[in-house]
Design brief:
Keywords: ATP-binding, Cytoplasm, Helicase, Hydrolase, Nucleotide-binding, Nucleus, RNA-binding. Residues 128-298 form the Helicase ATP-binding domain. The chain folds into two domains: 4-34 and 70-300, 3-Layer(aba) Sandwich (Rossmann fold); 310-482, 3-Layer(aba) Sandwich (Rossmann fold). Helices cover 37% and strands 15% of the residues. The protein contains 16 helices and 15 strands. An eight-stranded mixed sheet has the order 1-8-2-7-6-3-5-4, sandwiched between helices. Strands 11-12-10-13-14-9-15 form a seven-stranded parallel sheet, with helices on both faces. The chain is elongated and about 70 Å long. It binds adenosine-5'-triphosphate.
């Protein structure tokens, strides 16, 4: 997407296309995660039914689940890459929150959240975000590196509580993500009672003619268009800080681009614009550069996903019962960390979960047929360690980092429609363990020549030998789990 492209036209074109596609009436259940039509063959060779399918989670949903499951800051030793646009304003970084000369009550809030020192992205972004005159910024860094905390701190610092009108506007792609951001803001501002925050999200209704007095508005684009453009509950022309959170998700979400653009057009020229995004896609950057004038651009280099620090094994099983025995043995010796078990179908996942629960094991089940609230509840419990094992399908194979996961078990190896190894999904699945340089363990259950062939394809693809492990060799598994 070229800079200065007309978003409205672009969004309208996309809308037309979507309507066209919808009118062909492609049913979700006729598609598999990667969007190809299904073949009618299930994982265990049984006739496939609707349970097989997993609608891929949306980028917004993934982002939310990611936020829910993460306990703390992601460790990252990678460098910050700065693409500076304005050579007249020097960039500097800080090593402590004191160095930012924040309002003391705000600083108290930061410390009360347990933040002792700024994260990598915060070190570089915050001095620029808080500097005067205000500078625009496009920041990209992976999930969990402290972006939200960075822009929320900047938002709160820019508020003038004496002015009783909205001065800061933050757009999030979904209701849930907006609420998450608002919660961070409320916590950080816990010692600044004079700062008022308002959510512009579904369910929030206000009478016509109301003039909002809150300083910060956090909302979804549709509702903010209603409040700021249609009903003029607040004056977009008085907004001095505009944050687009999850810029990548915004771009991927139909209609959000258009609405964000309508809002952006009504902001004053000198409004400080901050774009935060987790991904590095070109279109995200082009989109951002198209509307953020003269931005300071910073990126935290991403850690490459590799299998180097993950020990991979396979266990030979004769049948499903054997696979179950292997899982039970592994469960019995997982004393440290947590495990994720991937199944090919929802049906297998729920069968396994019922069987394990029936045998008194504490396991959680997360598959695509759960509503978002239920998924959140399951992940909440898993994050809190209430269950040590999470049984899931490909729905969680990508994009969710569960730091405390030390063991990934492929109850079923990932295969494509032709029943060949799906190496990309394999990488994503076992990449759930061994994150950020930590050691991880992956155990693959193989139940016959066909699966063994799939395993061989995976070995060949990655050029790495996967060693055999005896399911009865509990001591060995235990040792590996502790390493
Ligand atoms: N300086 C800090 N010190 C300690 N913990 C921090 C710090 N900054 C943020 N955190 C914590 O780290 C976690 C991740 O931070 P945050 O949500 O800001 O990351 P993010 O990059 O916005 O992630 P996402 O892309 O998923 O939104 C949160 O639990 C947050 O409370």
């Amino acid at each position: 997407m070229a800079a200065n492209i007309d978003w409205v036209t672009c969004a309208e074109e996309q809308e037309k296309l979507i309507t066209k596609v919808d009118s062909i009436s492609l049913n979700k259940t006729d598609r598999i995660p990667n969007g190809s039509p299904k073949t009618g063959i299930g994982a265990e060779g049984e006739p496939e039914d609707k349970n097989v399918d997993e609608a891929p989670i949306s980028p917004a949903e993934r982002s939310l689940l990611q936020k829910i499951i993460r306990k703390g800051l992601v460790e990252n030793k990678n460098d910050i890459e700065v693409q500076r646009k304005d050579p007249t304003s020097p960039l500097f970084s800080i090593k402590s929150f004191e160095a930012l000369h924040l309002d003391p009550q705000l600083l108290k809030g930061v410390y009360a959240m347990g933040f002792n020192a700024p994260s990598k992205i915060q070190e570089t972004a915050l001095p620029t975000l808080l500097a005067n005159p205000a500078q625009n910024m496009i920041a990209q860094s992976q999930s969990g590196t402290g972006k939200t905390a960075a822009f929320v701190l900047a938002m709160l610092s820019r508020v003038d509580p004496k002015k009783d009108y909205p001065q800061v506007l933050c757009l999030s792609p979904t209701y849930e993500l907006a609420i998450q951001t608002g919660e961070v803001a409320a916590k950080m501002a816990q010692f600044c009672p004079e700062i008022k925050i308002r959510f512009a999200v579904r369910g929030e209704e206000i009478p016509r003619g109301t003039k909002l007095k809150e300083h910060i508005i956090i909302g979804t684009p549709g509702k903010v268009v209603d409040w700021g453009v249609k009903y003029q509950f607040f004056d977009l022309g008085k907004v001095s800080v505009f944050v687009l959170d999850e810029a990548d998700v915004m771009i991927a979400t139909q209609g959000h681009q258009d609405q964000s653009f309508r809002i952006h057009k009504l902001l004053p020229r000198n409004c400080q614009i901050m774009f935060f995004s987790a991904t590095y896609e070109h279109d995200v950057m082009d989109f951002a550069e198209g509307i953020v004038s003269n931005p300071v651009i910073i990126r935290l280099k991403r850690e490459e996903e590799s299998l180097d620090n993950i020990k991979q094994y396979y266990v030979m099983c004769r049948n499903l019962e054997d696979k179950y025995t292997a899982i039970s043995n592994i469960y019995g010796v997982v004393t440290i960390g947590q495990a994720m078990i991937f199944c090919h179908t929802r049906k297998t996942a729920s069968w396994l979960s019922e069987k394990m629960s029936g045998d008194g094991h504490a396991v959680a089940l997360l598959s695509g047929d759960l509503a978002i609230e239920q998924r959140i509840a399951v992940l909440d419990r898993f994050r809190d360690g209430k269950e040590k094992v999470l049984i899931t399908t490909n729905v969680l194979a990508r994009g969710i980092d569960v730091e405390q996961v030390t063991i990934v078990v492929n109850f079923d190896l990932p295969v494509d429609l032709a029943r060949k190894a799906d190496c990309e999904t394999y990488l994503h699945r076992i990449g759930r363990t061994g994150r950020f340089g930590k050691a991880g363990l992956a155990i693959n259950l193989v139940d016959g020549p066909e699966t063994l062939a799939v395993l061989k394809q995976i070995e060949d693809h990655f050029g790495k030998k996967i060693n055999k492990l005896d399911a009865e060799d509990v001591d060995e598994i235990e040792k590996l789990g502790k390493e």
